Amino acid sequence: MAYANSAEAQQKELEELRREVSCVLVLEKAGFRLDREATAQRSARNLKFRRENEAIIVNHDGKGWWDPKGDGKGDVFKLVQHLDPSKNLGHVRRELRDLIGKSPTLEVAERTKGVSDRPRRDPAELWGRRSAPQEGTPAWRYLTEERGLPGSIVAAAGRQGVLKEGPNGTAWFGHRDAGGQFAGMEMRGPEYKGFSTGGGGKRLFGFRADEGTEPARRLVVTEAAIDALSFAALDRFKKGSLYTSTGGGISPESEANLKQVMATVAKQPDARLVIAVDNDRQGHVYAAKLAAMAQEVGLWSGRISPKTPGDDWNKALRARGEEAQGGAAPAGSLSRLSDAITTQPAAQPDAVSSSWLDQARAHSPAHHQAASAPEPVRAPSPATARSATSSPGASL
């Protein structure tokens, strides 16, 4: 974005910054963290953030805020000046420019009940106390009814130890580092979302639709764990696929972790990375970053996104309105995925692979009568991958 000095250009920039930068990002940069208990008592529409004895409530989907202990309120510009009154509008604009394209971590601040030296609760301990959702439990109903996930997918995630049931109907999705060490969890519920790491940062959620019966040679990266499960429900190429989530923003720690996973997958025959991000501006930013990371380790990559602008993979799954079947993936599931994607991206040239749709049509029920998923279409060899251009528009 060019920053001209004309009044019209400045006004356009102000509108873009107000639209693109969440108040949550500003608060997290200033050291505030999400108050899980207080937020759960309200709703996901009003997120409470704390920094020692300070508190700020974020509303209007991150566009507004107010101070429960004072009179402060307003938009993201006023928030920056509320936190540092010495900053003028020029300072605020420069600070907000650096936050465009980034997403909040929603890391949780654990309550200390006035004891400043009390150790933070270990997320691994909290995780170990919980069990997988069972049919009929609040988290199971949230995932299968409100989120439209097939029961077979939810059950498989539970068996693999990557999904637990939290309080108040929340679903917890475990994150681990490349060595398998538990690092924290994404938490999603009917009126709550957050992330708990104990201060260690996000890593990677991972799920295998084939129960991990063979080494992963196809890595699918999504933005949220529910999107990873949703993509798996729509996907035909389940054999050898690892469906993952970064949990939103990619921190330096999660970037290093993801590169390790990419390097491991790249050693397999016909290895490839599927960048399954949302169809929005943030998705474009992630796609470019992930493609560059894949190129560094010699992993062939391509991007795929839902066809409707602004949609994520869970919205695409729910839009299909079909029940996925348990066991081996039927050929019909591929046609569901082909119907959910687009060959014409909304906001970025070459952002979505057209050959993926060609593959979908070639193996749709009209062309293929097999009841289980056959071998995936072969990707370029690792040697070809290293010499080819790895970009968001690469063919899958």
Automatic annotation (TrEMBL):
SUPFAM superfamilies: DNA primase core
Pfam families assigned: DUF3991 (PF13154), Toprim_2 (PF13155)
Region (Disordered): 108-132, 341-396
Regions of compositional bias (Basic and acidic residues) in chain numbering: 108-128
Low complexity bias spans: 367-396
Residue spans of biased composition, Polar residues class: 341-357
Organism: Acetobacter fallax
Residue stretches making up the DUF3991 domain: 141-209
InterPro entries, sorted: DUF3991 (IPR025054)
Protein name per its UniProtKB record: DUF3991 domain-containing protein
